[in-house]
Amino acid sequence: ATRISGFVLTDLIDGYEYKSYDTRMKSRASFSEEASIDDVVIIDIEQNSVESLGNYHEWPHAYHGQLTDVVSSGNPKALIFDIIFDEKGADNYYLVDALASNQTEPSPELQQAADQYLANSDPTQFVRSTSKSTVAHHALVFENSDSINFLYAMDQLPEAYDAKNHVLDISPEIAEKLPTAERLGNTYFDLLTSAHGAGAANFPQDEDGIIRRAPTAIHFKGSGEVFPTLAFSAVMDILGIPANGFLYDFDNHLLRLRDSTGTTVREIPIDEQGRMYVNYYGMFKTFYYIPYMYCFDPEMLDPSYWDGKVALVGSSLPGLMDLRNTPVQETFAGVEIHANVIHSILQNEFVKRTSNRQNFLSILLLAVLIGTLSAVPKKPFWGFLILGLGVIGWQLFSYSQFLEHRFMWEVVRPTLSMALAQLGIFSYIFLVLDKDKRFLKNTFGTYISPKLIEQMIDEKTEPQLGGVEAIHTAFFTDIQSFSVFSEKMSATNLVELLNSYLSDMTTILLENQGTLDKYIGDAIVAFFGAPMPVKDHQYWACVTALKMQAQLYPLRQKWEREGDRWPEEVHTLQNRIGIHTGTMVTGNMGSTHRMNYTMMGDTVNIAARLESSAKQYGVYTHISEDTYNAVKDQMTVRELDKVIVIGRSIPVQTYELIAEKGQEPDLYKELLPRFHDALELYKKQEWDLAIAAFETVEKLEDMFPGRKTNPSRVYMDRCAHLKQNPPGNDWDGIWILTSK
Questions:
Q1: Is the pLDDT assigned to residue 443 strictly greater than 50?
Q2: At what angle do helices 667-683 and 687-698 cross, to 10 degrees?
Q3: pLDDT tens across 685-720, in order?
Q4: Eight-state DSSP code of residue 33
Q5: Across-strand partners of 276?
Q6: What DSSP element (H or E) covers 257?
Q7: Neighbours of 344 (CB within 10 A)
């Protein structure tokens, strides 16, 4: 991290930077599936094993010896014990051995029981089995002194532990930079000495208690030895790294691992203490877990299973106190942290942090960029939009870099630099350059739109441009063939007709919790859910559409009774409606002189396209899948199409709104199932069968006056076209509309 010496906010900023790191790591980890990694396998001391073999703390070490023999025989890359063992007393074993040996005429049952006990409880088997294994690695636990509990610093390693084959050849200058420890907490030194490898199991926490980094080695302060960590002990064996193969480059924050031939086989990014960031591949149990009880019995799990795998022995039981707090999960088995470290090294996949130079340049460039852009708009408040876009852009960049390349850019300091730059520019413009503009606005405020003046009086605030983004329902409707009959009418009659129509439609809209946005000629633009929240706004939009369609009948009767005053097209007048639910911005928009409460966004455009494209299907209320999903239990619909409308590249699933559930005309009870079956044949590209099915459905369609086509007829023509021009086996059923 970029740190400024003596800056009091450094620790606070670093804390937020860690939170940002955790969020990105958790996002990346969320894509992994449970048990998706099986080349590093965890032998888990879990509930079933405890229930089968008894209380874990009472298990004889012979169990672990048997496990070592069985797993080692399967030729694994490594067998790693993430468990700290203490030597157990053998008094009971020797007592039973003595009693069994001194029996002159023991009963067969007693002798069998004694033999079984002795075989399962041999206190030397674990050490013998470990000594024979060429892949067994055991955990060291390093501690610092604690004089309160009489745990004093050690001047040297215990004499009973022969560690010569377990230490690294590291210079004292490098060793001083590594995490240090003053004590070795292990007590079972015969086991450690017999182990092929041994390493520190320590995972120091950050100040907030989360494990983000893993040491690569630990420096024992007393006599100066440097031990690899448990994961690196196994990696040394797997990759052929000798004791002098750890080359620390603290200037470039790299640990280079060289094999016995001098070849650099890994370059691992490290921090100033030689720690690597743990590359968490997923949530808890992303690695494959196998119960302990299956693994030490070759009849339950064939040893050949372990060929080429890394086996880690540990526990996920809360009672065994090996659950840790990690960026991806608050409760995470410590043994799986080792698994992530090992897998990361073997796969050569590491989390890389940006250098101080990269951080400084990013902060500087972003501050200059946002400051420069914020000074361009004439209205200083637009600078906040620029700041928002800058922050979002940097967030997206940093997230994509981590998700795709595991490259960790700083987020908090660049964001603060952009905010400070924008606020500096805003303060200068607002307080100095805009002083005269504010005076003119306050003086001539009486010339603003009357509605906005009323809003100022009621709320005692000045209206501001801008809006609120939320999920609402957009609603568009206009009159079918309006331009055809408007040409046949005088301007006076046309205005009267429109006023009558718009009055009835608007009344329905407002009575059903809709908000009128505007009139555009014969079109009504509206939305549901703002400015006041409306529960079930999708439902109210559909109810409004159905009531508008129903209100056309008395209007047509009225105009027909008035005879030749109106063209014949007016007597069969229909309107089309498009409805779509999604994210939109609603609020006061326009200019600082005049503004309206309106809506904008892609949701609005889709609703408009649904309304205009309804005529291509011969339907009169066209709704999107987002609206349908909210009302499917309340409304009867006909699945219509999956289309890409003009101006968009993403397809939209659409439906024809028929009626509220239970109120649909009788003909639809037969028509809808048949249409659905025909549509399934169309999706399967069975063109001849689909055409025949649609021809049958078409006979049921209600071709009332003014209706020029219907969905069945549309699909008959489309099937014929696709039969002549097959879309291919990878066709996804999407139809591209070429006109509005």
A1: no
A2: 170
A3: 999 999 999 999 999 999 988 888 999 999 999 999
A4: P
A5: 214
A6: strand 254-258
A7: 24
CATH class of 461-664: alpha beta
**What are the residues facing 514 on neighbouring strands?**
528
State the pairing for strand pair 197-200/136-140. Answer: parallel
CB 740 within 8 Å of CB 646: yes
Q: What is the pLDDT of residues 268-325, one digit of tens each?
A: 999 999 999 999 999 999 999 999 999 988 999 999 999 999 999 999 888 776 889 9
Residue at 364: amino acid letter: L
At residue 381 the predicted structure's pLDDT band, cuts being 50, 70 and 90, is confident
Q: Does the structure show a pLDDT above 70 at 198? A: yes
- Strands 323-324 vs 332-333: parallel, antiparallel or unpaired: antiparallel
Return d(Cα 204, Cα 216) in angstroms, integer: 12
pLDDT digits (tens, 9 = 90+) for 35-81: 999 999 999 999 999 999 999 888 989 999 999 999 999 999 999 99
* Residue among 671, 550, 532 at smallest CA distance from 621: 550
User: What mean pLDDT comes out for the span 629-633?
Assistant: 96
Q: Are 332 and 323 in contact (CB under 8 A)?
A: yes
The Cα 549–Cα 384 span in angstroms is 44
- Alpha carbons 739 and 251: distance in angstroms, whole number: 63
Spell out the SS3 assignment of 209-241: CCCCEEECEEEECCCCCEEEEHHHHHHHHHHCC
- Please tell me whether residue 585 adopts helix, strand or coil conformation: strand
- pLDDT band with cut points at 50, 70 and 90 for residue 89: low
pLDDT at residue 24 is higher than 60: yes
CA–CA gap between residue 581 and residue 482 (Å, rounded):
27
Q: How many CB atoms lie within 10 A of CB 352?
A: 17
Task: Say which residue the tokens 């002990």 belong to.
Answer: 233
The maximal CA–CA distance of the chain, rounded, in angstroms, is 128
Name the packing angle between helices 108-121 and 61-72 (round to 10°). Answer: 70
Per-residue pLDDT at 133 exceeds 90? yes
What tokens were used for 588? Answer: 């006061």
Task: Decide the pairing of beta strands 652-660 and 621-624.
Answer: antiparallel
Q: What is the Cα–Cα distance from 136 to 134, expressed in whole angstroms?
A: 6
Comparing CA positions, the residue from 525, 719, 541 lying closest to residue 641 is 719
- How many C-beta atoms lie closer than 10 Å to residue 26's C-beta? 15
Q: Is 268 helix (H, G, I), strand (E, B) or coil?
A: strand
Cα atoms found within 13 Å of the Cα of residue 522, Cβ hemisphere only: 21
- My answer on whether omega of the bond before 531 falls inside 30° of 0, hence cis, is yes
Mean pLDDT confidence for 425-450:
51
Closest C-alpha among 235, 261, 233, 222 to residue 168: 233
The distance of Cα 126 from the centroid of its chain, to the nearest Å, equals 45
| Radius of gyration from C-alpha coordinates of the chain | 38
Q: Which of 715, 712, 693 is nearest to 703 (CA)?
A: 712
Q: Which two tokens stand for residue 163?
A: 């560690």
Residue 455 banded pLDDT, cuts 50, 70, 90: very low
Q: Please give the C-alpha separations between residue 376 and each of 189, 281, 417, 418, 590, in angstroms, as whole numbers.
A: 72, 44, 18, 15, 20
The whole-angstrom distance between residue 363's C-alpha and the CA centroid of its chain comes to 27
Pairing outcome for strands 37-44 and 310-314:
parallel
- Cα 601 → chain centroid: 25
Region of poorest pLDDT, from 63-67, 114-118, 157-161: 114-118
Q: List Cα–Cα distances, 473 to 506, 509, 636, 653, 703, in angstroms.
A: 16, 13, 18, 16, 30
Q: What 3-state class would DSSP assign to 707? A: coil
Q: Summarize the confidence of residues 233-242 as an average pLDDT.
A: 96
pLDDT value of residue 446: 30
Q: How confident is the model at residue 355 (pLDDT cuts 50, 70, 90)?
A: confident
